[in-house]
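Handoff note, outgoing to incoming analyst
You'll be picking up this chain. Sequence as last confirmed:
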Amino acid sequence: MQIIELKKGQTLHAQGSPVQTIDIISKGEINVFNDGISIVLKGGTICGLPETPGDNYMFTYQAQTDATIASYPFTRIEDLISVIKANPKIAPILVSNVYRSYQIALDACHKQLEEASALYKDLMADYEQYPSLCTITGTQLKAYPEVLNQSPLPDIKLAPNWRISYINAILDNDAALRKAFYTINIDIDVAMILTCVQYLNSLCQYSFEILRYSKTLLKETAAFRSAFSTIKSKADQIMNGGEESPDTVPEFKDVLNTLLAFGNVDPEIGEAFADSVRAYASSTVTDAFSDEYRKVRRDVATHFYKVYKAVFLASLSESLVPDVVHMFLMFGYCHEDLVSAEQTATLYRIMKSYSPDPGGHIFTMPEWLEMIYEGQVVPSRNEFNLDYQGYLNEQKSQGNITEEKMNELLEDADAKLDFEIGNLFMLSNRVTFGRASAFVPVFDEANITKPLPDAFLRSDLLQSQVDALKSDDYTIFYRNVMYSNPSIGLNTFTYAKEVMPYFILLPNCGSRISLWQEIEGRKRDTPARYCISIFHSSELSDTLLQGFADYRWEMCKTIQGIHWNDVTDPSLTSEYCDYLQFYKKNRMLTEDQKEKLYEQLKKYSNHYNQVFMSDYITYMKFERTGSLRLNKIARQILFAYCPFSKELREKMTSSPQYGDLVKTFDTKNATAMHTLENVFTKIEKGGFEVPDEVKAQKDYLEL
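Most recent structure output, in case you need it:
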């Protein structure tokens, strides 16, 4: 005998593995299931009675709670008899629970039988309704002879009446039998259990017959059911005038088939995706690090993005897109069993109430991919920091494609879409989720950690938070851009131009933000690209501060190029690197400050960018309100390159820590303004109109 301790979600035996042991549940509960039925066995029950030694397990046995199992070798039926006789004190309990388990299994099979019968009835009802729906939607009527070839489930009697009465009598008199009958002789207990094993074997045969029927019916009628789901969804929208009341939520059924049919997904990919999603939906494993859970998630992710692309492309060419397709593209919703009716209704209402960002800087994933596909924006960089053209050049230099093929791909909208989905979408979807070990790309209610209406990032909410932070760090999205107009005497003129970033809302419930890229290619006046979850569970202002800090550092590195850490070319990154690298020799820091800085570097594994980001967040959250947390050197560098707004600067003029910094800033600004006024005078004396770029620089200096 071996004692096995199982944590909740761990598998004792997997379906298809060889039968080698018979087990007694000492404590806890075990879920016994396959594609057809699922039952729960409690403590004091023999586990695996319908299994045949030497064959493969017909069911998976998984811990429903933490459980303790007494496991015995099982190579022949005599081993079961030995196990019973080796436990005479608990034998009466084993007999009682074996018959109780049979009753539970019988009820589960009755439910399975009812569902299989309903499956056929619903199919026939849908087939009868199909022609009228085609008329409503203007869809060409198509014949599906395979539907008419289906037969109802044969009449199955799971157990004779006398057996059901016998089982009921045993359970009704359980206490008396335990006390006066099961304790008479151990051989009585053996016979009672072996008799029930025969009943269980018979029940299993019927269950597998029902399962085979259901699977065959679903497989042979898959094409019709997919087509019907799509047409039904379109018809519902037409019958409601194309718009439903916000209080009216349609019933979502057979969502997977609707999506696969709408996207005309390759049958092999569609079937694999459907199987993986159903396996994920039915899995009770909760350990994110278990091999079984990893495999289920990996199978879903393998096919998700292929299906997403097919459905997305179909949505571009259809004038009437089913609501469930919009929910899939926006949120990743694809299976009704993964989301309760209440949360589904919330998703539906959010989808119906959604309106695009009027400012044109915040996009859902389908909106962003449409811009890529239509050529309105260039594809994002890949994980190796190569843009689309750079990637193709690399492929050509490696001999993977010819120059002719490269030129063809440069204009290929489908190839650009693949590049964007395979890089920004796939990688950022995982990063923004926040828990890589538990990530799955489909919408799962289990991942909701904050009420959906509160977590949903409306464009106005996100924009207001960005504006609030930008009002303090007002220079963050300004870039120095060159302007030239020799005709008015301006050969080179540098002015500050504000370039607001793009925010791409990923279809997940997450907690992080990802700065995917700072600029497009080498153009400094192009928007940065942030990725963030459409349902964001963390405090949004804190998340944005993290993203702003990352942007400050990475943008400076991009502008400075190879000189980003060269202190002879002063910049935010070079001065911060110099400060962190030589802090031990800095006489302006006290020993306590040096010790604190040592611990900070240790915390972030000497990653200077992480230390800067931590200081920037402190600067923006606390220093701006007068709660001083930074040392003099860090404060000086941050204020020089990330100055506060004019309103905050005026409040800080009397501060001992900030007074001199504000004066230095004002002096520098006054000098720049004086130089700019000379430019104004020169242009106006020449009889020319002052260009907008020069006026923009004046507006910037007055901020």
